[in-house]
Design brief:
Layout (H helix, E strand, L loop, with lengths): L1 H28 L3 E9 L4 E8 L6 E6 L2 E6 L1 E2 L2 E2 L5 E7 H4 L3 E13 L2 E9 L3 E2 L9 E5 L7 H8 L8 E4 L10 H15 L4 E4 L11 H6 L10 E5 L2 E5 L19 H14 L8 E5 L13 H7 L4 E4 L6 E4 L8 E4 L2 E2 L5 E9 L2 E8 L4 E8 L4 E3 L3
Parallel strand pairs: 1-13, 11-12, 12-13, 15-16, 16-17, 17-19
Antiparallel strand pairs: 1-2, 2-7, 3-4, 3-8, 5-6, 8-9, 8-10, 11-21, 14-15, 18-19, 20-21, 21-22, 22-23, 23-24
The structure holds fe (ii) ion (FE2).
Fe (ii) ion binds next to loops.
Length: about 375
Amino acid sequence: MYELNLVFNVIISAIIVIQSALCLPINSLFFRIDSNASVFESGDGMYTVIWSTSLPGTGYVTYNYEGEEYTVKDEKNAALRTEDTVHSVRIPKEHLDHNTYTYHSQHIATRRAYVAVKGRTVSSGPVEFKGYSGQDEIRALVISDIHENPGNAAKAVGCFEEEPDLIIMNGDEVSLMTEDYKFKQVLQYAYRFSRGEIPVLYTRGNHENRGEYSSDAVDIFKTTTGGLYYVCNYGPVQFLCLDSGEDKKDSDWTYSGLVDYTSYIAEETEWMRSLELDDDAQYRICVAHIPHLKNRYGNDWSQLLADRGIDLFVGGHKHRINFEFNEKDGAPYYQMLDGGKNGDDRYIATMLTIKEGQIDVVCYDNNKELRGEHTYYFDGSADNQAG
Ligand SMILES: [Fe+2]
């Protein structure tokens, strides 16, 4: 019986391989990079470079560092990933900062035991990446809640005269993860605002927790925490980037009884408690989509952030600007909610300028209207000028 099965499998494999090889010249014509790469923070002093192609294939990044040539491959447990159209490679930050990288993918039409049908390879041009270079002012562009309207977001971002040093994409950039191309939209937005040249801090919004591709998308980042939460540094700033989960209980009808954020958030909370934060960081900023921190699936993140010495919490989700000292939760840190999608035809983008013991906040909408200005001083005072 075993021999019969083996013969049958060999015949099927041979048919698939021959068919795939015959179609390869035409299929390969359609193989292209459909979302350019962005460089995402992913914790542990690492970046994850992520891009996508129109058809499945391999992914790898090449660069030179200290006289050596590097080729870093998208692999899992030693096997190159070939069945996905989204490709990700994790690289030490010091290798990419102030360096040039190129990314490549080869079309893999069929992969069986002992044989694979391979198509053409596509490559990006060289991309010059900027990291922290000791500048006195650090500008972080915050774009949350795009909700699939990048045009308005781009108009709002266009109001800022200065270029950002990093991008904070604080969730709900798309409204559902029901198809794999939805994550490609996140990638396209990340590239649109970063050009792959500056770091992107991405957190998952509640809408990006919905749909059968939500956990697949998180796996792409290859964090070591087991979820999309991590700590990263940019010069004197330490960012604690959290996955705040959903905005409803696991038992809500929305999820058909098929989610377990209670366990996921409990693990994340334990991780936050055990974190060794950087004592030398001058500013500690927590970034998470949902600002309701007092009760995250039964966990008091508000107190925990206060205990961990967070200076400023940056949230989204509410679709309106809010600057406040988060006293009502008994937590002595500032809170800022950026606007994002603000009504049907408005989008509010926010720029944080971090310098000399203060953080200046400026918010513009897509009609070029100044929607808010605020300064957080880290001597315990705040100056709310508008908004
Ligand atoms: Fe949200």
